[in-house]
Write a structure and sequence with these properties.
- This protein has helices at 2-5, 45-48, 52-56, 111-122, 137-143, 154-161, 180-190, 201-204, 210-214, 227-233, 237-240, 244-255, 290-303, 308-326, 334-349; strands at 11-13, 36-40, 58-62, 75-77, 99-103, 127-133, 148-152, 167-172, 195-198, 221-223, 258-261, 267-269, 275-277.
- With 351 residues, the chain is an alpha/beta fold.
- The strands form 2 sheets. Strands 4-13-12-11-10-9-8-5-6-7 form a 10-stranded mixed beta sheet, with helices on both faces.
- A hairpin with a 5-residue loop joins strand 12 and strand 13.
- Helix 4 (111-122) crosses helix 13 (290-303).
- It starts with a helix and ends with a helix.
């Protein structure tokens, strides 16, 4: 019967038959593929997590009179209603909007840091600097204008740079390289008092020593792994968990910081168990450098005073919206240039 149904356009009520509302996973080998799903009050995780989101087709939420206070406030679909963008204030100035630092790799690996830095500047950080090893200063300086270049030499040089407490958030990982030197730089940043976004190589460098990282993290830190990096830091957790949502929540509680587990169904989780599911990311975001831009967006929002959880949620939503506005042919360099349109749309819809 189900196989015959799947040859026709199907409207599913609540969830397509055979798909878990908790995980989005099929409950067996036979399940409905709906063209339209009508659910009630609010979406379930299965409407947002893959493959459930795809198997639901278009999902419409119908109001049947359930009061808003009946909601489980620990879980939401990520929308602008959940956070407040830090719009510039008339009496503000660049120093009041924070100073974001992105740590660059060596001369042959500088592009990722510049992508993150441009995103941080576009999203509103007052000042942005690329902290550059000596051999990469000329390369970075040749590509940057409004973004400053700050030379440093190893962990001692980075510590000296961050002794200026006006530099209030740091991005580490994009193009940084995997190994002991990166671990030292991460530890230096996490001991400096600055907020931090750890991505890519800053995560993978702790594959064999995850507890040494967890002991340094706090509620001003955001980890932004894709599933491969997540597995390096939390081995086996995805396979042991009932869903990607449960895995991200467990990881956040273990690391004691915000974890953003990337993908078409990105999950943002806090140590408290609070979580949002981001569902506005188009398939075109599967392109080199897109994650570096996301790290920069989150850091730029942190620099302006957003909490780690809200910055991660807001950054993920802006990232998806900017990509959707561009459409096919997207590359990572396009994302910061689409942000003005995304922010204008957000401003027009804000109360």
């Amino acid at each position: 019967m189900v196989e015959a149904l799947n040859d026709l356009p199907v409207v599913a009520v609540d969830m397509p038959s055979g798909i878990s509302g908790d995980t989005g996973q099929p409950l067996g080998g036979v399940y409905v593929r709906a063209a339209l799903t009508v659910t009630f009050f609010r979406k379930k995780p299965g409407h947002l997590l893959l493959p459930g989101r795809a198997l639901c087709g278009e999902t419409v939420v119908a109001d049947i009179g359930i009061p808003a206070e009946a909601a489980n406030t620990q879980l939401h679909e990520n929308t602008p209603a959940l956070w407040r963008f830090p719009w510039p204030e008339l009496e503000g100035h660049k120093y009041s909007r924070g100073h974001c630092v992105v740590v660059s790799g060596g001369a042959a690996h500088t592009g990722a840091a510049r992508l993150a830095a441009r995103a941080a500047l576009r999203v509103g950080a007052g000042l942005v600097s690329v902290a550059s090893p000596s051999d990469a200063v000329a390369v970075n300086a040749g590509h940057l204008t409004a973004i400053m270049v700050k030379p440093f030499d190893g962990r001692a040089g980075l510590a000296e740079l961050l002794s200026d407490k006006r530099l209030n958030v740091v991005v580490l990982g994009p193009g940084l390289g995997v190994g002991g030197e990166t671990r030292e730089l991460v530890a230096t940043v996490l001991r400096s008092g600055a907020a931090a976004v750890l991505d890519a190589d800053a995560i993978s460098s702790f594959k064999d020593k995850p507890q040494s990282l967890f002991g340094l993290l706090d509620n001003r830190c955001v980890l932004t792994p894709h599933e491969g990096e997540f597995e390096r830091l939390f081995p086996g957790l995805l396979d042991q968990s009932s869903s990607k949502l449960e895995a991200a929540r467990t990881a956040a509680a273990r690391a004691l910081c915000v974890v953003l587990l990337k993908g078409a169904d990105t999950v943002i989780a806090a140590p408290s168990g609070k979580a949002v599911l981001n569902a506005n990311a188009p398939a075109t975001l599967a392109t080199a450098g897109a994650g570096d831009v996301l790290a920069g967006l989150i850091a730029g929002l942190l620099a302006q005073g957003m909490s780690a959880f809200d910055a991660a949620a807001c950054g993920a939503w802006l990232h998806g919206d900017a990509a959707s506005r561009f459409g096919p042919g997207l590359i990572a360099e396009d994302l910061p240039e689409m942000l003005p349109g995304t922010l204008a749309g957000l401003a027009s819809s804000s109360p």
